[in-house]
Amino acid sequence: MELRAGGVLVFGPIEDERAEKMRSLTTDFSYAERRFLEALPPARPNDRLLEALKFAKSLNFSKSSLKSSYLSHPFRVATFLIKLSPKAADEALIAALLHNVLETTTLTIDAVPFGAEVGKIITTLTVDRTRPFGEIESAYYARLAETGADALLIKLLDKMDNLFTLCLNSNNAIRAGYTAEIRARLMPFAAAFNPGLGAYLAALLDDADAVGFRADLKQTLETYQRAQQELN
User: Fold this and answer.
1) Contacts with 166 (C-beta within 8 Å, 6 or more apart), sequence order
2) Whole-number Å distance between alpha carbons of 200 and 206
């Protein structure tokens, strides 16, 4: 199964996308950056987008020294966004590129220099990790809906990118909770936004549940990370 929008391939077969995700996690982040730049229409790159890329690459990540662990994901989310929605506003693309900075760095939103709209989307997307998610889940998704379709679409693509390698998590309960949340909170939006997207998401969720934990892929990632840490 694959998903195309306007003749552009957004998502290929799930196993192919899983392999691509693993490649992005086990190579320098420039690979995912290049894929994003290749996805932009020729007239689309501009100073703001390029500055957002530069800003992202300048960040210090508090959880890991391996930038590939954190940059490949937002770069991939932004790539999916431009393929699925070629007319997405610059603010949405910049928010996609930077959507996880408040969780993976020590930055506050005031230090993200791309305007109020970008700041609002990023702030809304950021989960308050000081509280059990079950206590805030309904309010969190309500705020996303109030913020608008761009925030919901970025959240959906964020979750979909993670689903390709949910099999790296060995905890059965966490995996089950993750797919259940997406089915309940994001499936209706996906189907309404694009029926093909809804169908692909349904297949991806079923696949994630069926695959379970992939120890071989986990070992591949850990081997790469150890090698990189030794180099650093």
Assistant:
1) 175, 178, 179, 208, 211
2) 10
pLDDT tens, residue order, the chain (232 aa): 999 999 999 999 999 999 999 999 998 888 999 999 999 988 777 889 999 999 999 987 765 555 666 789 999 999 999 999 998 999 999 999 999 999 888 899 999 999 999 999 999 999 998 899 989 999 999 999 999 999 999 999 999 999 999 999 999 999 999 999 999 999 999 999 999 999 999 999 999 999 999 999 999 999 998 888 777 6
Query: 3 in a domain, yes or no?
Result: no
**CATH code of the domain in which 31 resides:** 1.10.3210.10
What's 126's DSSP letter? S
Q: In the chain, how many domains are there?
A: 1
CA nearest to 63, candidates 106, 5, 17: 106
For helices 133-147 and 172-185, angle between their N-to-C axes, nearest 10 degrees: 30
Q: What range does the domain containing 146 cover?
A: 13-231
Token pair for residue 179?
């797919």
Residue 6 lies in a domain: no
148: region left, alpha or beta (phi > 0 left; psi from -120 to 50 alpha): left
| Tokens standing for residue 191 | 């189907």
